[in-house]
Amino acid sequence: MTFDELFENAIQKREEEKESFILESKANRQKCKELSEQMAVKVGQDGKTFQQVLDMMTRFPKQTPNNALLILAQNPQATQIGDWNYWKGKHAYIKKEAVQDPILILEPGQEYTRQDHSKGRYYNARKVYDISQTTSKQETPTVEPVSVETLIPIMVKHAPVPIQPLDSEAFSPGVGALYDPVNEVIQLRKGMDNGNTIFQCLSVEMCHASLSQGNPEYNRHAHGIQAMAASYMLCKKYGIDTKAYAFEHADSIFPGLDASQIKQELYTIKQTAQNLSYSMDRDLKPVIKHKDRVR
User: Fold this and answer.
1) pLDDT at position 103, please?
2) Which stretches of 46-126 are DSSP H helices?
C-alpha cells in the first residue's frame, strides 16, 4: 500500500467516525426527547411517579427537572452520576458490562440565531454512569440532618413574608398555618409542639407566599400542588418526615396538561424549593461545619 493510499484510508476512516458520531449524537438527543416526554406524561397521570421525580430532583439538585425525568426513566436507583472523566478523577472506572448502558442526560451547547433573529441553544446528549456502574468503593455522600429546632428559626428568618402567631381559635380544625395573600403574612397557630408538623405546615405556606410574589394570577387552589410538592422537597432535603405527603395515592396530578406543560410545572416546583433553601443554607453552613469539627 502506498503512502497516498494510507492517507486516503485514514481520511476516509476519520470522516466515517465523524459521521457515525454525529448520527449517534442525533439519535441520543431524540431518545432523550422521547424518554423525557414519556416520563412527563406518566408523572401527570401517576402520583407515585410524581413523588419519584420529586425525590430525584432533590437527590440531584444540580440537574434540570428534564434530566431528573431522564435519570428516573433509565436508572431510578441512581444516587451519584458522572462521566468517564468524573469517575477517573475519583480513581474509578466504568465496569465493562455497563459501558454500553449509560444514563443519557441533556446539557446545553452552543447558542444559535433563528430566522426571526431570536436566540436558541443546541443541546447535547451526554453519557453518564451511576456509582453502581463503576469500580468506586466510595459511599454516596450524605449530609447529616440538622435538628428541626435549628431549622425553624432559620425558616422564620428567611420567610418571604412576615409570620404572625395567632391563637388556635383563629384557625379551622387541622390547620397549622395559613398564608394570607391580601395582607401578605403567614399566620401560624400557637401551641403546636411537634417540630416536624410545624416545619411541614410552615414550609407549605412559605411556598405559597413565594409562588404569589409578583404573580397577579396566583390562586391558592391552582397553586396548591406546586406549594405542596416544593414543601415535600424541602422536607426531603432537610430530613423532615414526609409521611404526611400522599402523592403516591393520587390518580392524576396534572390533568389536561401536555408533556411540555408538566415539565414547566416541575421547573416551578424545583425553583420554588430552591429559592427558599438557598438563603437557609447560608445560615446552616456554620452549623454543619461545626458538627464536622466536633465529631
Assistant:
1) 97
2) 47-59, 65-74, 84-89
**Taking a C-beta distance cutoff of 8 angstroms, is the pair 237, 281 a contact?**
no
Distance CA 200, CA 243 (A): 11
The predicted structure's pLDDT at residue 23: 67
Looking at residue 60, what is its pLDDT?
96
SS3 196: helix
pLDDT, tens only, 40-74: 999 999 999 999 999 999 999 999 999 999 999 99
For 6, the grid coordinates are: 494510507
Please answer whether residues 36 and 70 qualify as being in contact, where contact means their C-beta atoms are separated by less than 8 angstroms.
Answer: yes
Provide the 10 A C-beta neighbour count for residue 185: 18
Q: Among residues of the chain, what percentage have pLDDT more than 90?
A: 72
Q: Which residues, 6+ apart, have CB-to-CB distance to 250 below 8 Å?
A: 47, 50
Strands (E), the chain: 81-82, 103-113, 119-130, 163-166, 177-180, 185-189
The span from the CA of 238 to the CA of 230, in Å, is: 13
Contacts of 139 (CB under 8 A, 6+ apart): none
Report pLDDT for 191: 93
Tell me the pLDDT of the chain averaged across its residues: 89
Which residue in the block uniquely carries the three cell numbers 453502581? 132
- At residue 189, the 3 state secondary structure works out as strand
Q: Which parts of the chain sit beneath pLDDT 70?
A: 3, 15-24, 139-144, 288-295
Report the candidate in 177, 151, 173, 149 with the shortest Cα–Cα distance to residue 163.
177
Instruction: Give the pairing of strands 163-166 and 103-113.
Output: unpaired
Element (H, E) at 22: helix 3-45
Q: Cα(164)–Cα(185) distance, rounded to whole angstroms?
A: 7
First-to-final CA distance of the chain = 69
Q: Is 163 left (phi over 0), alpha (psi -120 to 50) or beta?
A: beta
Tracing cell 416551578 back to the chain, one arrives at 268
